[in-house]
Structures are given as structure tokens and as C-alpha cells.
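Entry:
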Amino acid sequence: MTICNGRAALRALVVAAAFCCAAMMAASPAQAAPDAKFVLISHAPDSDSCWNVIKNAIKQADEDFNVQTDYRNPPNGDIADMSRLIEQATARNYDGVVTTIADFDVLKSSIGKVTVRKIPLVTINSGTEEQSAQLGAIMHIGQPEYVAGNEACKKAKDAGIKSFLCVNHIATNTVSFDRCKGFADALGIDYKASTIDSGQDPTEIQSKVSVYLRNRPDTQSILTLGSVPAAATFNAVTQMGL
């Protein structure tokens, strides 16, 4: 889902590092022990290659600031598993925790345990600034999903678009539907009728998009929520000659 932004993750880690008591050592990061240990927990399944950008940002931040950051995620994108990962991170006494708010209601209890233990918290990507504040985070780096979809549609409306398909590959993340809804509301249509739960397998995504477009040939635009579904959708449209 998502806003997959390596720069945002880097900024999040820098902010968390600023709240660590350890001073930066003068020795080379390659030779010195890390000054602090952080963890970044995302909702992304292993199949979401978009998050490789985030992992690269983490690696670069570790080198730049002589810290160690573990990356954790639920292999299948299960939010309940993500909640357990957050609880495990809390017990490991990290100097800072960075996490997405994939599902506020499911995750608020486990994330709350982070701040109860006075561990600096930064939220990124999924979720809202309001939710982040409620969880006691230092800051949120991301954008509201509804606003993202709504703003995207303003560009589409300028091009005369009146219908669309929203390809949601992370339907387990309830916030993701807000982006579809934001787009649909700007058009004045029901987002549910224009949204498919595509799954995360590229072949499956391509197949479902093709079926939808064959059944609704009047579809004028497509909104995807990540790079993986975007590529699969592009393949579907190309093969159909659209």
C-alpha cells in the first residue's frame, strides 16, 4: 500500500536516532559497534518488492549514522502477525521503533506497549497524523490515504475521466481502501463497485484486472496502490491492446 518511499524511512530513522542517548563515535561505522539499535516493522509481505527501496534506505542510514536497524515484516502481510512483531520488538529494548499503522484498531494495543515503555516511536507510510499522535509517536511520515486518492482524481477529472478501477493488492490493510474511496468520491461514484481485491501475486493481479476490464469496457482509468500491481496491471492493459 502504499507510499513506498525510501527517503521517508531514512528520515524516520534519523529522527529516532536523535532521541537516543548514545553519542556518535568517531571511529568508522564498519569497525565500531553500533551506537544504537532500531527496528522498522512494516505491513508489507515478502512478495512486495517495493519495500526493497526501504531496506536499501535502512542500510544506508545504518552506515551514515553508525546504528543498527532490524527490518521486520509479516511474510504474508497478516496484520495480526505484524502486531506480534511489534510486541516482540518492545520486549527487546530497542532504542527506537519505526512502524506503519496498517490497521489502527488491530495495532493500537501492541504499538501502545512501545510508548508505555518510553521507547521513541515514529510512524511511517500507512496511517494518519491523528492516529500517530494518539499512539504517542514523535511524528508521522506519510500521507493520508483518502487525501492521496482524492488528489489523484483531481488530475484525472481534468482529463475528463468519469470511471475507474482501483486495484487493491493489500485488502488486509483496511486503510488502503481509503485511497480508492478518495478517488471515487471525487468522481461522485461508489468506490466499492470500482474496487477489486487483487491479491499480491502478479499473475493473479493481471488476470483479475483483465476480467474486470472485459466485463466493464467503459472503464476509463486505473488506480493501483503499489509498484507490483502497477506492473501487473500494465501487462494486462498491454495484452488487451487498450
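Residues 39 and 70 are 5 Å apart (CA to CA).
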